[in-house]
Write a structure and sequence with these properties.
Length: about 325
């Protein structure tokens, strides 16, 4: 069985096609389309027609590529930017009408659960009670659990791109007051979640997402070309020094640093502040970097529970957006 997953995030639409025999998703092809969707969102959060058209084109291209690789009808979902948009249903309908792909949005807590599952499977049971951190463009997912799925999962509006657009709007680099205001927001949002993680006392902490991967590379972790099986860690003290480095540099100079790509250079400081604050407030000194995240979590649930799991999940959340039927139960957003 070959399965495709399409993930429309704040910056990129990504496709992974994997063989799903034997209970383990083995990737055979990946592709991505850079849209910078979050930069095309209006002040009120609406996604404009041009952005919808670009999204539909990318999703359609991903579906065609998945089919060429033998995976029909990809499992397609969008994350925080689309989930929080007031015209979310219109966006999903447009994608379906133009591509035939039934895309849904997943609640942030479900994203955290699926990402946790991917990380748990990658690290194995040796890691014991596990805390997870995932910084996206629009939200931060945090989870904790002792088993296959987390006992606690939360999604907070602390995405690197969201915070950059909200707090760093004037200078480049931002002013000390802007940085101070961002830190204050992050601490406030993380107060209750961090208290729960401290109380649970995880044995292992894991970080996923492109933001954490780039920050780990900046702090000395092995480059991506060394492959996914290299052990990579990120120490809180190193991340603190990275914040000091990034805060003093304009975007163009950040892009010259190891691991910081030009498209993500502007949001790298906000991501570093969120990551360091989360580790400090939870009392975690070191996180392991995990290459598996939400897409692998979707694949694993699909393998373990069958096609009905995805069908019911997508229908329950956004099913009527693609069929034009009766009103659906709207999932909570992170806004």
């Amino acid at each position: 069985m070959r399965v495709g997953v399409v993930d429309a995030g704040s910056n990129t639409v990504r496709l992974v096609v994997a063989d799903a025999e034997g209970g383990v998703p083995l990737p055979v092809h990946t592709a991505k389309w850079k849209l910078r969707l979050s930069e095309q969102v209006g002040p009120d959060g609406h996604i404009g027609e041009d952005a919808v058209d670009q999204l539909a084109q990318a999703v359609g291209a991903a579906a065609r590529k998945a089919q060429r690789w033998g995976a029909a009808g990809p499992l397609a979902f969008a994350t925080a930017v689309v989930r929080a948009a007031p015209n979310r249903l219109e966006v999903l309908r447009a994608v379906y009408e133009r591509t035939g792909v039934r895309m849904c949005t997943l609640p942030g807590e479900v994203e955290a659960e699926l990402t946790f599952l991917g990380a748990r499977r990658w690290l194995g049971w040796r890691c014991g009670p596990l805390a997870l951190f995932d910084i996206g463009g629009g939200s931060l997912e945090v989870a904790f659990g002792r088993g296959r799925l987390p006992e606690f999962a939360a999604s907070l509006p602390l995405g690197a791109n969201r915070l950059t657009n909200e707090f760093f709007r004037t200078g480049d680099p931002p002013s000390p007051d802007e940085v101070k205001a961002l830190r204050r927001r992050v601490r406030h949002q993380l107060r209750d979640v961090s208290a729960r993680i401290r109380w649970e006392g995880p044995r292992t902490a894991v970080a996923t997402s492109r933001t954490f991967q780039q920050l780990a590379r900046l702090c000395g972790a092995a480059p991506g070309r060394d492959g996914p099986f290299v052990h990579r860690v990120l120490h809180r003290t190193d991340l603190r020094r990275a914040v000091d480095t990034l805060v003093a540099l304009p975007t163009a100079e950040r892009a010259l640093l190891p691991g910081i790509s030009a498209p993500r250079a502007r949001q790298s400081l906000a991501g570093a502040i969120v990551g360091h604050t989360a580790l400090k407030l939870t009392g975690i000194r070191t996180v392991e970097l995990c290459p598996w995240a939400i897409r692998e979590g979707v694949l694993l649930r699909y393998i373990e529970e069958g096609p009905d799991w995805w069908t019911s999940t997508a229908r329950e959340i956004d099913g009527e957006a693609t069929t034009g039927g009766a009103p659906l139960r709207v999932a909570a957003s992170t806004s």
